[in-house]
Amino acid sequence: MKTQAMVQVADRRLEMIERDLPTIGRDQGLLRVESCGLCGSDVEQYKGSFVAKGLVRYPLIPGHEPIGIIEEIGADASRTWGVKAGDRVALEPHLSCGVCHFCLTSRYHLCKSLLPINPPAYGYLPLDFEHGLWGGYSQYLPLHRRTIMHKLPNELPLELASMYQAIAAGIRWSVHVPQSTFGDTVLILGCGQRGLGAVIACAQAGVKSIIVTGLGRDAFKLEIARRLGAHHTIVADRENTVERVMALTGGAGADVVLDVTPAATQPVNDALASVRIGGTVVLAGIKGGTRKTEIDTDLLIYREIRLQGVFTQGSEAYEQALELIARNQERLAPLHTHEFALSEVAEAIETLGGERAGEEAICISIHPEHTQ
């Protein structure tokens, strides 16, 4: 068998290839990719930011949010994963060893032991590593023996299932990590797919007050945020974010602030100025290779602010995300705005990145079985 895949060969340059599929061993499997979601990381990877940071090298097949059907599976893998040929699954991107300190302390997403590549994850491994077919921008994806997957109901629409990582990010970043709960005020800086995922998570967790920021051009997303449970929205390029948050909280500030804005560094300082004494600031927005943020560390000390970085999800968040999607299909449907064929990946990424005029993009998916 052969597979077609889109390979990134340079910054902003993708090419279609066709390769033979490897033989599947007893502890491996083969996924027929039905859809692959896109997020801000795909945009940064496409632009070359990850190469600039030394995280990846060309050529490689991107795509770290694949969903598909188990086409072939070894006997050992079937027992380990609890799935069989014909089952639909969603993959976690990270490939962890299972025995290092991080894996044994429930932080497997930080494991760097399994593969001599950084990061050891689907969508980031180079074409010259083993068979090279490690990304979701492909018709078929060979499954490594250490893959973590989640079985999906076949009746769950693909366009909704493809949002599993965005929703899982919102759950972990806005609820699990800062331990947001009833009575809290949570400020979410940014209204992209991860920000809206955080709105959904906070609403489900019973957070008292959810505040979301966006820009003037984000009117569509801010309206979606309100429909999903946001109590207040702030247009950050027309209003003073800090002043508005203080007015909404009676001068106390937010209990939790999550920054998911890409590139812009001002939101980091807005987060520190908007959080209450003893509150938590969670940073998840990738700022790009050369952008630096100056912060007042005395502010952290005197106000005992907890500052936490996050960059990925975990199994509990994935399971909760898939359950949440299955129970709220009609409500969450507006989040999925576009889908593209495999040959249209560049257009898909540029649409998500705001480079296509007139497009209101939130969650986007690639469907390799579609024709252009």
Structural write-up:
- The chain has helices at 40-47, 49-52, 75-81, 101-104, 158-161, 164-176, 193-205, 219-228, 241-248, 266-274, 297-303, 315-327, 329-332, 345-352, and strands at residues 2-10, 13-20, 29-38, 66-73, 88-91, 140-143, 149-152, 185-189, 209-214, 232-235, 254-259, 275-283, 306-309, 336-341, 363-367.
- The protein is α/β, with parallel strands linked by helices and 372 residues long.
- The chain has 2 domains: 2-162 and 328-367, Alpha-Beta Complex (Quinone Oxidoreductase, Chain A, domain 1), CATH 3.90.180.10; 166-309, NAD(P)-binding Rossmann-like Domain (Rossmann fold).
- Strands 3, 4, 5, 6, 7, 14 and 15 form a 7-stranded mixed sheet that branches. A 6-stranded parallel sheet has the order 10-9-8-11-12-13, with helices on both faces.
- Helix 10 (266-274) links the parallel strand 11 (254-259) and strand 12.
- Helix 7 packs parallel to helix 8 (219-228) and helix 9 packs parallel to helix 10 (266-274).
- The chain is globular.
- It starts with a strand and ends in a 5-residue tail after the last strand.
- The model has no long low-confidence stretch (mean pLDDT 94).
